[in-house]
Specification:
single chain, mainly alpha, Four Helix Bundle (Hemerythrin (Met), subunit A), 4 helices, 87% helix, elongated
Length: 149
């Protein structure tokens, strides 16, 4: 169920952009109340804008991945556990991002923020596990197939 190399590279780039902009925003957000607060506040705002743009690109990828990758892999019974975890994590990230942007509730906002940050920091690790697991299973299946031929 491997993606076209160009699509795969672009997807890896978007995932990396999301992680880097989110992680560096966390640092900038913590430092915006220091002596050089104006620079950190400016950086935090810019990073948040870039993170939102990368999130829009990721939403387009998710829409494309469902028929091209997810449905085909599910029907072929491939990498279902990590694939289901990836889809669930993506759903939580999308829902909490929506909530952070549109819900002004002072009660819900910290909860959504904590979930979004926690799942966002976990995303690259799960993404890596999903890719490596899929490649290993694919390589093992190809080895078995070539031995039987």
């Amino acid at each position: 169920m491997r993606l076209d190399p160009r699509v795969r590279l672009a997807l890896y780039g978007v995932v990396a952009a999301l992680f880097v902009t989110g992680a560096v925003w966390l640092v900038a957000d913590q430092l915006k109340d220091t002596a050089s607060s104006e620079a950190w506040q400016q950086l935090a705002a810019t990073l948040l804008m870039c993170h939102g743009g990368a999130a829009m690109a990721m939403l387009m990828f998710l829409g494309a991945l469902i028929p091209l990758h997810v449905v085909r892999a599910w029907r072929a019974r491939k990498n279902r556990v990590t694939g289901t975890l990836m889809a669930s994590l993506d759903a939580v990230l999308v829902a909490t991002a929506f909530g952070l942007y549109y819900v002004a509730s002072p009660t819900l906002r910290p909860w959504m923020s904590g979930l979004h940050i926690g799942f966002g920091l976990a995303m690259p690790l799960l993404f890596l596990v999903h890719v490596v697991t899929g490649r290993r299973r694919s390589a093992a299946a190809n080895a078995i197939e070539s031995q039987s031929s």
